[in-house]
């Protein structure tokens, strides 16, 4: 049972109500991409959070740049190729009268850059900045200068007018052709560690323990995958499918599901046991393979002689309840999809726990959440 | 070597230090010239037709719960814990992948590139290469996937 490739999405939008007949895919997210706000008791997508930079560093030299808010690139000797963004190797060569030259070579493509002989000690970034003398850079610098001087405003206006009149791409390209644009090695983009807050209640959903670049421990972590059940759909026979729910919580959970009229559900209300430390016990039988000895022995333990029994035509449709399978923390419910053209199944899930999940004892008395889960129908 | 599960055909593993519950599928080639020059952590899985070679300087270290897909060519220096490498990826000489990363299918990672923790990487350099942040949920997801694949094959 893959949590990575399971075609189950959650509709996550607080401003727009779902239209179950034409679901807007913009608001569909995989469970792993969502946060869960325990205060609002609902999943939160990337559009419903407030990120804030916790720390930033260069992943190459591990220099911490958190105290420099304006910097977005490493100012040390970490360079990337302007053509393919790969790391660049730097070779230094000695010359007469204390002269030095630096040769940059891309580790992936054929890009090379030579600084020529430099006599004054300077940082590599400073050297490259001095060597930026191509016509395009000069024009850019000129425009910047003009922006500060009122007497040359007419020239700036004239150039802006010329640019605004270019409505065709070819014309714009011809203008660019007038300039000589050279490519220079660029500093490596910094990596950010972000703390996340809920946009509704402003409570922290994710926060790092330390700003140290190599330590990635979280002080606060509210991910949807730790609170909401994993849902998936597998095909049983022709138009009969199995709907699986797996409880990630360490407390018992009761759930209620409802769906559209084209879907016949055998059970609307059920309870899921607390998650177990035994990995294999927490996997629904439909996902256990007979090719693996461990999985096969578990299947035999669960089903016994029934494992090799063939399901006859119409048997499931007549008695759906008989095919409900309940595990330690999971349930598999048979459903009939009457409309063959249906590609997705929207299900509204309501969850409730009598006890608060571990770590949320001080925040809530119990989980009480509801959301739309959209599942792709397997072929 | 604690325990390893391999299928019965064309698996070449010599001088490799394996953790517990490592699964290596058909036609996998691990080229390790010195003793313990390739180390693979627990619950890792290497799928069919993949090759692991030593980087030009040093040993190759692959962490725990690492999933290496079909037809991959790995020549990295270090792969952290809980890394998912999808099918057809090429990890060039000396690259370093920190923990909890997702390398999308047919991605090429250039030599000596360092991928920070919690990142998704995809594409080919010079074409459509990208590195973007990955949700912290993937730590659990990739570990679950590795454990599941261990009882699936």
What this model shows, in words?
The complex is a heterodimer of chains A (379) and B (153). By secondary structure, chain A is of the alpha+beta class. Helices cover 15% and strands 32% of the residues of chain A. Chain A folds into 3 domains: 8-34 and 223-376, Immunoglobulin-like (Sandwich), CATH 2.60.40; 49-78 and 188-222, no CATH class; 84-187, no CATH class. Chain A has helices at 124-131, 135-148, 153-164, 169-177, 293-303, 315-318, and strands at residues 8-11, 28-30, 35-37, 42-44, 49-57, 79-80, 88-94, 100-106, 112-118, 186-187, 191-198, 204-208, 218-221, 230-237, 240-246, 253-259, 263-265, 269-272, 325-326, 330-337, 344-352, 368-376. In chain A, the strands form 6 sheets. Chain A has a 6-stranded antiparallel sheet, with no helix packed on it. In chain A, strands 14, 15, 17, 19 and 20 form a 5-stranded antiparallel sheet that branches. In chain A, strand 7 (88-94) and strand 8 form a beta hairpin. Chain A is elongated, with a radius of gyration of 30 Å. Chain A starts with 7 loop residues before the first strand and ends with a strand. The model of chain A has no long low-confidence stretch (mean pLDDT 86). In chain B, 8% of the residues lie in helices and 35% in strands. In chain B, a hairpin with a 7-residue loop joins strand 19 and strand 20. The longest helix of chain B is centred in the C-terminal third of the chain and has 13 residues, at 138-150. In chain B, 56% of the residues are buried. The chains are: A alpha+beta (379), B mainly beta (153). The A-B interface holds A 1-4, 31-34, 59-60, 81, 83-87, 89, 107-109, 191-192, 194, 206, 213-214, 216, 218, 221, 223-226, 279-280, 283, 287-289, 291-292, 294-295 and B 84, 92, 98-100, 108, 110-118, 125-126, 129, 133, 135-138, 140-142, 144-145, 147-148, 151-153.
Globally, the shape of chain B reads globular
The count of strands of chain A amounts to 22
Structural class of chain A: alpha+beta
Instruction: Please indicate the percent range of residues of chain B in DSSP E strands (runs of 2 or more).
Output: 25-35%
Query: What level of helicity do the residues of chain B show?
Result: under 10%
| Average pLDDT for all residues of chain A | 86
Across the major sheet of chain A, the strand order is 2-1-22-21-16-18
Write down the domain tally of chain A: 3
Quickly give the CATH architecture of chain B.
Answer: 3 Solenoid
Radius of gyration of chain A: 30 Å
- CATH topology descriptor of the largest domain in chain A: Immunoglobulin-like
Name the CATH class of chain B: Mainly Beta
Number of helices of chain B: 1
- Extended strand count of chain B: 20
């Amino acid at each position: 049972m893959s949590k990575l490739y399971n075609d189950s999405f959650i509709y996550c939008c607080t401003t727009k109500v779902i239209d179950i007949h034409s679901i807007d895919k913009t608001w569909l997210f995989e469970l792993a991409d969502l946060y869960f706000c325990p205060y609002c008791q609902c999943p939160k997508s990337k559009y419903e959070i407030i990120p804030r930079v916790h720390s930033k560093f260069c992943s190459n030299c591990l220099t911490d740049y958190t105290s420099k808010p304006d910097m977005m690139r490493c100012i040390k000797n970490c360079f990337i190729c302007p053509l393919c963004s790969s790391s660049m190797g730097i070779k230094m060569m000695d010359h007469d009268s204390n002269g030095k030259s630096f040769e940059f070579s891309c580790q992936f493509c054929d890009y090379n850059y030579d600084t020529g002989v430099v006599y004054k000690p300077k940082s590599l970034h400073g050297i490259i900045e001095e060597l930026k003398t191509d016509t395009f850079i000069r024009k850019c610098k000129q425009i910047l200068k003009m922006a500060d001087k009122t007497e040359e405003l007419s020239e700036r206006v004239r150039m802006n007018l010329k640019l605004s009149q270019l409505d065709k791409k070819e014309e714009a390209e011809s203008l660019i052709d007038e300039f000589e644009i050279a490519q220079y090695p660029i500093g490596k983009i910094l990596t950010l560690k972000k703390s996340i807050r809920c946009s509704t209640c402003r409570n922290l959903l994710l926060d790092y323990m330390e700003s140290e670049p190599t330590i990635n421990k979280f002080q606060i972590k509210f991910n949807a995958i730790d609170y909401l059940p994993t849902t998936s759909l597998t095909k049983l026979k022709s138009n009969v499918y199995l709907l699986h729910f797996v409880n990630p919580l360490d407390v018992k959970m009761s759930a209620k599901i409802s769906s559209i009229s084209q879907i016949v559900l055998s059970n609307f209300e059920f309870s899921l046991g607390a998650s177990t430390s035994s990995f294999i016990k927490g996997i629904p039988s439909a996902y256990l393979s007979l090719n693996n000895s461990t999985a096969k022995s578990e299947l035999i333990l669960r089903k016994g002689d029934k494992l090799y029994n063939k399901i006859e035509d119409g048997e499931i449709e007549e008695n759906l309840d008989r095919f409900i399978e309940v595990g330690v923390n999971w349930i598999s419910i048979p459903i009939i999809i009457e409309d063959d053209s249906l590609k997705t199944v929207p299900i509204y899930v309501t969850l409730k726990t009598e006890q608060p999940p571990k770590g949320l004892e001080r925040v809530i008395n119990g989980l009480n959440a509801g959301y739309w889960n959209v599942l792709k129908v397997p072929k | 070597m604690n325990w390893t599960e391999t299928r019965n055909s064309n698996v070449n593993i010599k001088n490799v230090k394996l953790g517990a519950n490592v699964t290596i599928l058909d036609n996998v080639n691990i080229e390790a010239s010195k003793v313990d020059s390739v180390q693979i952590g627990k619950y890792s899985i290497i799928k069919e037709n993949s090759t692991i070679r030593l980087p030009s300087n040093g040993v190759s270290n692959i962490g725990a719960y690492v999933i290496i897909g079909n037809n991959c060519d790995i020549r990295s220096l270090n792969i952290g814990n809980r890394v998912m490498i999808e099918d057809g990826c090429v990890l060039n000489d000396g690259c370093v992948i920190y923990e909890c990363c997702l390398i999308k299918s047919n991605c090429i990672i250039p030599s000596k590139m360092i991928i920070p923790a919690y990142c998704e990487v995809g594409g080919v350099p010079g074409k459509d290469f990208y590195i973007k942040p990955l949700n912290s949920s993937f730590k659990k997801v990739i570990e679950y996937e590795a454990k599941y694949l261990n009882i699936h094959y």
